[in-house]
Design a protein that fits this description.
Blueprint (H helix, E strand, L loop, with lengths): L14 H16 L8 H6 L2 E12 L1 E12 L11 E10 L5 E10 L2 H7 L5 E2 L6 E3 L20 E7 L2 E4 L6 E4 L1 H8 L5 H6 L11 H13 L8
Parallel strand pairs: 6-7
Antiparallel strand pairs: 1-2, 1-4, 2-3, 3-9, 4-7, 5-9, 7-8
Length: about 230
């Protein structure tokens, strides 16, 4: 009897692969055995970016990555469908070979969300403020219920099985319009996808799991990692 061929996993650079990777990162954030991210960040943020990157180089490091952005409607608490984005940058550092890491960026206000989803690329630390995020599920964020008193974005890196604070100054973010059109079957800007309900998210692609995990993180819940 011929063995069934295993279905190939989606490419990390395509929307399905980016959603799958984002689900993995959120699953790790829910792991009760690991230091988490303050729940009130998920309660007060305007959106979140989940990006998988690869760094390579010698003396000068060059990085590139792809991921998804989701917006949160603060009035209804509803999370949007994901929009594809890309990240790139260069910096000085002693990096041998290549290293993969996952990045989580909490977009704390509407200006950060709009900057991340505009038609033009933006440079973190230059055109938009970035800061290292606090670690710990019950740590209080340095802002009030209106999200005031913080910088535009708070950043984290998931590396070697743990979340650590990370600076992303110099990184460039840009929307991936073609990948969005391929996934949703129609042209739409990132801002339309995130705030205008112009696309119908396809079922069975992991979007429901993204929303479920984000809501669990907002409530401060935990979950054992998936096998």
């Amino acid at each position: 009897m011929a063995s069934e061929k295993k279905e190939k996993p989606p490419k990390r650079t395509e929307m399905e692969g980016m959603i799958a990777n984002a689900n993995k990162v959120l699953g790790d954030a829910l792991d009760p055995k690991k230091d988490g991210i303050p729940r009130d960040l998920f309660e007060n943020c305007a959106g979140i970016a989940l990006i998988s990157t690869v760094e390579a180089g010698f003396l000068v490091s060059v990085s590139g990555g792809t991921g998804v952005i989701l917006a949160r409607d603060k009035s209804s608490g509803k999370w949007s469908p994901p929009s594809a984005c890309g990240m790139g940058g260069a910096g000085f550092g002693f990096i041998f070979g290549a290293a993969a890491k996952d990045i989580m960026v909490m977009l704390m206000d509407e200006s950060a969300l709009h900057a991340f989803t505009g038609d033009k690329q933006i440079k973190l630390g230059g055109q938009i403020g970035v800061a290292i995020g606090p670690i710990g599920r019950e740590v209080e964020g340095a802002f009030n219920a209106n999200g005031e008193g913080v910088t535009n974005t708070l950043t984290y890196t998931y590396s070697k099985g743990a979340f650590v604070s990370a600076g992303l100054e110099g990184q460039v973010i840009k929307s991936r319009a073609k990948e969005n059109e391929k996934f949703y079957g129609q042209p739409a800007t990132a801002q339309e996808i995130l705030t205008k309900d112009v696309v119908t998210p396809p079922e069975g692609k992991g979007i429901e799991d993204l929303h479920k995990k984000l809501e669990m993180l907002r409530k401060g819940e935990t979950m054992e990692p998936e096998e």
